[in-house]
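quick q for whoever's on today - can somebody do inverse folding on this one?? i tried earlier but teh output was garbage lol. tokens:
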């Protein structure tokens, strides 16, 4: 039987919420029961609004729906743009019982979620993610925030949504580079926690690249299930949740070096995972055959093999030093001790890290 609708729950006691996944949900599924008062503020951007704002508004029949349209781009994930949301809420006299709706990719989701965490000390919000990356990662788990010129996602709050609505049809309009970027986070779940899913992805990556609905629903469901499990075990990242950052320490360094918006987050994570696989193999944690298996899948998904050509090992080390996972100034990395089994550690041979950086930053570059 074709599975084109699947729901699951993020289990967080009284803050638990459903994730509704399927084809053709936008504008059809009634989200009214997840709205606390009678007013809604949809936060979206100038790219997504003409595509999906009308449809999304139809999920809130009977409510008074306002909207604010932000400029599009990671470079706008900042205080100035966040203030546009507060301006709209205050000008529209929205009270504490309003519900904010994030309609768009991870940039809109993170900013709208952070606005919801702050507005009048916290209001409810709903995630309607429209990129693959935001559907499998950023819309789930309650991390919200903005960038600072000195570091990505450095200002933010944990704030869980009321519901996440994922319509796979929205992926049809995604720009070409966005799908591989989302696949990076999908592959991440297989690498860190689910070897069976990794095997399924090896079979299905081409179907996913062709946007086949059944494959998309399965990949999104299994990714969200993995994330939901990790988040319910460690909501505030006391330990385990950090494994969701496989490849992100290298990746954030790439994004910050390149300047926000030039490399897509998922592209940087993809290259970062190649680096984490390389380092894990150099440290003897995984065999070379597993490194090659991971690398093959990441490259088949269409992700970049190398960081920016002019990026040097010293650039990585400087930027990685401000990563949020670091403790008392010592660098902590997510590494693999098997495919499907991640570990977070600061105890590794730094000579091996230097070798990985040298390989990816030029020496040995083909
Ligand atoms: P994005 O939000 O910039 O979206 C990518 C582009 O696609 C944008 O131009 C957007 O306007 C456009 N777009 C969105 N949906 C579309 C659609 N259906 N059709 C056509 N165009 C569409 O990027 P992203 O990859 O979704 O998210 C990246 C952001 O997510 C980063 O800021 C990253 O830090 C954050 N993130 C957060 C978490 C978290 O846990 N909160 C996790 C991972 C990533
Ligand atoms: N994307 C990492 C996390 O949600 O923890």
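ok took a stab at it. sequence:
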């Amino acid at each position: 039987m074709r599975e084109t609708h699947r729901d699951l729950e993020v289990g967080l006691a009284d803050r638990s919420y459903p994730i509704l996944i399927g084809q053709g949900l936008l504008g059809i599924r009634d989200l009214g029961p997840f709205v606390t008062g009678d007013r809604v503020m949809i936060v979206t951007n100038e790219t997504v609004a003409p595509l999906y704002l009308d449809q999304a508004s139809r999920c809130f029949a009977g409510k008074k729906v306002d909207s604010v349209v932000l400029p599009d781009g990671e470079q706008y994930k900042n205080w100035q743009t966040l203030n546009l949301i507060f301006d709209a809420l205050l000008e529209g006299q929205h009270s504490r019982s309003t519900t904010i709706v994030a309609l768009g990719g991870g940039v809109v989701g993170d900013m709208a979620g952070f606005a919801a965490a702050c507005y009048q000390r916290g209001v409810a919000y709903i995630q309607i993610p429209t990129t693959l990356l935001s559907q499998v990662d950023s819309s789930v788990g309650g991390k919200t925030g903005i960038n600072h010129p000195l570091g990505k996602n450095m200002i933010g709050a944990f704030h869980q949504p009321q519901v996440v609505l994922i319509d796979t049809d929205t992926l049809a309009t995604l720009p070409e580079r966005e799908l591989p970027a989302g696949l990076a986070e999908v592959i991440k779940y297989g690498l860190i926690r689910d070897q069976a899913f990794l095997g399924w992805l090896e079979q299905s990556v081409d179907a996913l690249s062709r946007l086949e609905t059944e494959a998309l629903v399965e990949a999104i469901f299994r990714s969200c299930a993995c994330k939901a499990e990790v988040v319910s075990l460690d909501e505030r990242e006391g330990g385990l949740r950090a494994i969701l950052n496989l490849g992100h320490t290298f990746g954030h360094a790439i994004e910050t070096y390149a300047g926000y918006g030039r490399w897509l987050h998922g592209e940087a994570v993809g290259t970062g995972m190649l680096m984490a696989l390389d380092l894990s193999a150099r440290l003897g944690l995984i065999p070379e055959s597993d490194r090659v298996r991971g690398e093959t899948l990441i490259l088949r998904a269409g992700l970049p093999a190398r960081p920016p050509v002019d990026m040097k090992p010293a650039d990585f080390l400087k930027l990685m030093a401000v990563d949020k996972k670091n403790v008392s100034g010592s660098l902590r990395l997510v590494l693999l001790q098997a495919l499907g089994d991640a570990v977070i550690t600061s105890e590794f041979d730094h000579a091996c890290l230097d070798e990985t950086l040298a390989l990816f930053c030029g020496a040995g570059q083909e």
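fwiw The longest helix spans residues 213-233. also The two ends are 45 Å apart (CA to CA). so keep that in mind when u check it
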